Amino acid sequence: MTTKDQSGIDLMESGKLHALRQLILGLDQQDQDRLHLLLRDPHAFADEISELLPYAVRRLVEKGEITVDSLMPIIEDSMHKSVQKNPGKLVDILFPVMGPAIRKAVSEDIKRLIASINTSIETGLSFKSLKWRIQALLSKRSYTEILLANTYLYHVSHVFLIHRQSGILLHQEAANDSQQLESNMISAMITAIRDFVSDSFHNREDTSLDTIQVGLMNIFIEQGPHAIIAAIVEGNPPADFRLTMTEAIEAIHFNMAPEIEKFDGDTAIFIHSSKFLRTCLIRERKQRKARPPLAFIGLLILLFILISWVGYGYITNRRQIRALQEQVNNTPGYHLSSVKKKAGKYWFIGLQDPDATPFNEIVASSTIDSNKVKGEFEAYLSLEPEILVRKALNRLQPPPTVFLKTQGTVLEVTGAANQDWVEKLWANIFKITGISELDDSKLRVNHTEEPDLDWIIPEIEQKSFEFDINITEIDSLQFNAFQDLVQAALLLEQYNRTHHTLLRIIVYSYTSHDGNVEANLRVALRRAEHFATLLYQAGLKEELLEAHVKFVEEGQSPSLIRSVQFKVIDKNKE
Amino acid sequence: MLKKKVTMLGAFAVGKTSLVQQFVHSIFSERYQTTIGVRIDQKNLHIKDTDITLMLWDLYGQDDFMKVKASYLLGSSAYILVVDGTRHDTIATAHDLHQLAIDTLGKLPFVMLINKADLEESWEISSNDIQQLRDKGYKIFITSAKEGTNVEAAFYWLTEQMIAQ
Fold first, then answer.
1. How many domains, in total, are found in chain A?
2. Would you state the pLDDT for residue B30?
């Protein structure tokens, strides 16, 4: 072993070689080993880089060498290619997000729509809205402002983020229904007013201006180191609204501190403060008193009245038309085929005998408005008894002492007439359509022109009408006898006229003393008056009629009880 | 969108408010100026493909009784010194305010407007004085708020300076 070898061994032994290496390379053995490991093992190298990479990116962003704008094309291209390659992948990624997002959006839209409809109904045409419109007109404020002030307990309409030193508006958020404001000017003025107040109190820390009251509005101010938030509030917000504002300004400073600190006039970046500012846009609707829906009830009542009125009119109209229809059908000489409604009028269509009662007379006697009804009738010949009698009367012109009646196609002529008229009767009778036979067996021919008292008076005084208990009016069996009475009575009146006499007919209604005399009298009187009325209606003058009640006395025939008899008396001889 | 605060500075009655009124359509009453010492206006401009909003802070005129509050200058991106051509002493006030601006804001773009050009026969400021100011590096515009002379040019020039910065 040489001296040289010996010295090397000594160096190694003493560890001086390591010291020398460290001096030359600046690395100890451990560092070298670590570097060797990184170079040899790609996994270890990747781990090392992954720790540094986020920090490096952050530094690059801070230096401005990487910006969102520069990254955007890369991200957009990547997403575009990913979608082109496999759209399903993106669908899978978005699936958990899309459902809730769509539901939320739809639900929000529906809520907004309902709220909008409700508001429109409540404020559209009500006394309240009218009052608010007048209020808005008088106060020169917009209707929306008045509406919000009256509808909400409190309402934050605008939130401004303002650069603290310059007073420049960095960003603003406004509630959907808020008015446009001169936001830039307001922001600057708020800052100027704050500066003024601060200077006036010699910049004391506790003298910052937190609230400015402007009429019904309050401007709430919350201050951060570099920016302030100003919220325009109507009403009294809850106590924790201040806390909300504080949290918002803190969040903005936390997230955007560099941008605010280095603000150089470019406000675009502050759109990202939007989500924080929006947390301050709160409102609470006034609790509405639970009142009965008077307007709705009123509307219902009105509707009910309207329907009732229309319904009543319709039903009444229908009833009147039906009644008229029945009346026309029952009128001799008519055959109604249909009733139609045309141009607001009812048209009665059918057949009408020329001798029938005119249609307009029937309408006039009904309750319906004659303007609503029109008749459209074809002519026809009716064989109804009333029409045949009417035709006979029109053609034969009988004297008042003659009465006409039909039995099928047979014309019965009764009463009294002179020879001339009887001749006229035979000459014309068969010219009347519908009459095939004439029965004049009961027609008495007067050979003189004078009425014959020898016939008239017995004819009247021999008439007797008997009644059952409590019956006061003649029945159909008594009618013919009554017609004979009328005929004789009319002749008596004719005699009075020609001879200037006052021969009167006294109606005696007989009763008895048996039973309830008062009731007997009442019934008897009613019978007497009934005959007097009938004779008057037949054409006799009232002054020639008298009605009396008589008791059947002893010695008189009991058959007189409940009978009506007649007596002719000359008044001049009384 | 750029927004810049520009402050109008000058002695009492040099025509600051009239210059602003000439430049913008004002909506705020002058009462604010007498109440809190400042009146604010806004002017939107489009210069060199840039939309810019100028927030013009028209401060009350400084005199022996009232000094301009430095706090109103804070956040300004530029300022305008206004001098009354008919009053020589307003130059000194402008100098004081210029110094206040430098102390408060540091070096910023500014322009000096020598106003009331329409009253030139009554001028106390000579061309010599103006030259001296130019020699100090001041950008000077001779303006007339009454007739509108050079008002727009001065504001546009200052705005271009701010954009260029």
1. 6
2. 53
